[in-house]
Specification:
With 146 residues, this protein is an alpha+beta fold. It folds into 2 domains: 5-38 and 99-144, no CATH class; 47-95, no CATH class. It has helices at 29-32, 72-76, 97-106, 112-132, and strands at 5-11, 14-19, 24-27, 47-55, 67-71, 84-87, 90-94, 134-138, 141-144. Strand 1 and strand 2 form a beta hairpin. Helix 3 (97-106) crosses helix 4. The longest helix has 21 residues, at 112-132.
């Protein structure tokens, strides 16, 4: 199942995560995931995180979805607000929140980012299973397949 999300605003002691399908989830990051991190993509970071989105390389070090770090000074040579660049047949994009979380989850890193990705994945997977049990909807009546 493919999905993405972005961290929205702080609301009622929770953070709102907006999903790509228009839904949202309130999550108490400070208590459930206290070491949750944002991607390193702003001027305050010495290194920026970029995700591989295309690769012509056969080197296993360069897999789609992997995150690589580049010095800010190197990136600024391309553009002061660089969001994407190509280097040696590999296209990199500034890392998004979902990409960071998924990368850490996929690589079995024991981080709060990986745990949050698994948590949201489980919520969405449960929702899909529940919806698949609905056989039909007619005149306000829902029949559930058990």
């Amino acid at each position: 199942m493919e999905f993405s999300y972005r961290l929205g605003e702080f609301k009622d002691s929770n953070y709102v995560f907006y999903l790509n399908d228009g839904r949202w989830i309130n999550i108490d990051l400070s208590n459930k995931f206290p070491k949750y991190r944002l991607p390193m993509t702003n001027l305050g970071n010495e290194y920026w995180q970029f995700t591989i989105i295309k690769s012509k390389s056969i080197n296993p070090y360069y897999k789609l979805g992997d995150i690589h770090y580049f010095k800010r000074e190197f990136i600024r040579k391309f553009n002061t607000c660089c969001r994407q660049f190509e280097r040696v047949g590999i296209t990199y994009r500034l890392t998004k929140q979902t990409e960071l979380d998924k990368y850490e989850y996929r690589n079995s890193l024991n981080t709060d980012n990986a745990k949050l990705y698994a948590y949201i994945y489980q919520i969405l997977e449960t929702d899909v299973k529940e919806k698949s049990k609905v056989k039909y909807y007619k005149n306000g009546f829902v029949e559930i397949a058990l």
